[in-house]
Design brief:
Elements lengths: L1 E5 L4 H8 L6 E5 L9 H11 L3 E4 L13 H21 L3 E7 L22 H13 L4 E5 L2 E2 L6 H11 L2 E5 L3 E2 L2 E2 H13 L4 E4 L6 E2 H15 L7 E5 L19 H7 L6 H15 L1
Parallel strand pairs: 1-2, 1-3, 3-4, 4-5, 5-10, 6-9, 7-12
Antiparallel strand pairs: 8-11
Helix pairs in contact: 1-6, 2-3, 3-4, 5-7, 7-9
């Protein structure tokens, strides 16, 4: 099997490379090798490489900046997804596309099922929803949330840095979701693709937490792993105390029943994966 990984230098892209099946031949590109907003370049590249699978891990993820750059975000998250889907179909390849919990409005009191009504509150959410629609019914579309990894910019690494520098950190406590360890998501994408799964599915780690809960756990695990040497005071604050250009959903826990069925069991609890991530940082820096 030949697989094209787009967005190969990001958290998920690196995870896809690390968890790839042994029989997979990988073609890994990022924006410096392939501009996915250039339809002609994408068509030519895919025609040249003739992959069996196209995994789209590329995205415009600057959620707040997207409010003033929605056209740029749409070009990457929306239009380019359609371009990749068309190029994949032209060579008989399957598209695996990653989307987000931000396609929902956050007003639900129960986890969002894959077929739940969407209602994005932000430009980022609107552009990601457009990407889902342009991926087409033959694609595997996996929505995820709160992704982090041992490398790159993410909430866990930011919290570790701030807790090491400051006596106090303030963290939003009224937004509820689920953290997702990027290598686990990557492995699930490979498994679902290998099983021929299509349509919209959800993947995060198991459980739920607020950003405040997540921060408390990061400090506890960071101290236990020796990555932190001091204990900062973590202050829970409401979203209203930390205004941002983009409106975020207050509740975005995703229902993963169909994914559990496809994978043959539940995903690890987010706290367990957080501990694994701390060990990885301790080992590799």
């Amino acid at each position: 099997m030949k697989a094209l990984i787009v967005g190969a230098k990001g958290q998920l892209g690196r995870g896809l490379q690390a968890t790839a099946p042994g029989d997979a031949t990988l073609v890994c590109v990022d924006v410096d090798e392939l501009d996915i907003t250039d339809a002609a370049a994408v068509a030519a590249f895919v025609a040249q490489e003739q992959p069996d699978l196209v995994l789209n891990a590329a995205a415009y993820t600057a959620v707040d900046k997207a409010e003033s750059e929605e056209d740029v975000a749409m070009a990457i998250n929306g239009t380019a997804t359609g371009t990749l889907a068309q190029a994949a179909r032209s060579v008989g390849a399957r598209l695996v596309h990653v989307s987000t919990d931000f396609v929902f409005d956050g007003r639900s009191g129960i986890p969002y099922a894959p077929d739940a009504p969407t209602g994005p509150l932000s430009a980022y959410g609107r552009t990601k929803l457009a990407g889902e629609q342009l991926a087409g019914p033959d694609a595997l579309i996996v929505r995820t949330a709160w992704v982090y990894a041992p490398t790159g910019g993410n909430f866990v690494r930011t919290m570790l840095r701030l807790m090491g520098e400051r006596p106090e950190v303030r963290v939003v406590a009224d937004q509820i979701g689920t953290p997702t360890y990027a290598p686990g998501l990557a492995g699930a994408l490979w498994a679902m693709a290998a099983n021929g799964v299509a349509g919209i599915h959800h993947y995060t780690d198991s459980g739920a937490a607020s950003w405040y809960d997540f921060a408390v756990a990061i400090q506890e695990e960071g101290l236990a792993a020796g990555l932190l040497t001091q204990q900062a005071k973590i202050v829970p604050i409401p979203t209203s105390a930390y205004p941002t250009p983009a409106v975020r959903p207050h509740y975005s826990v995703l229902d993963k029943a169909s994914t559990f069925e496809a994978l043959g069991g539940p995903t690890p609890h987010w706290r367990d994966n957080l501990r694994i991530m701390m060990d990885a940082i301790k080992t590799n820096g």
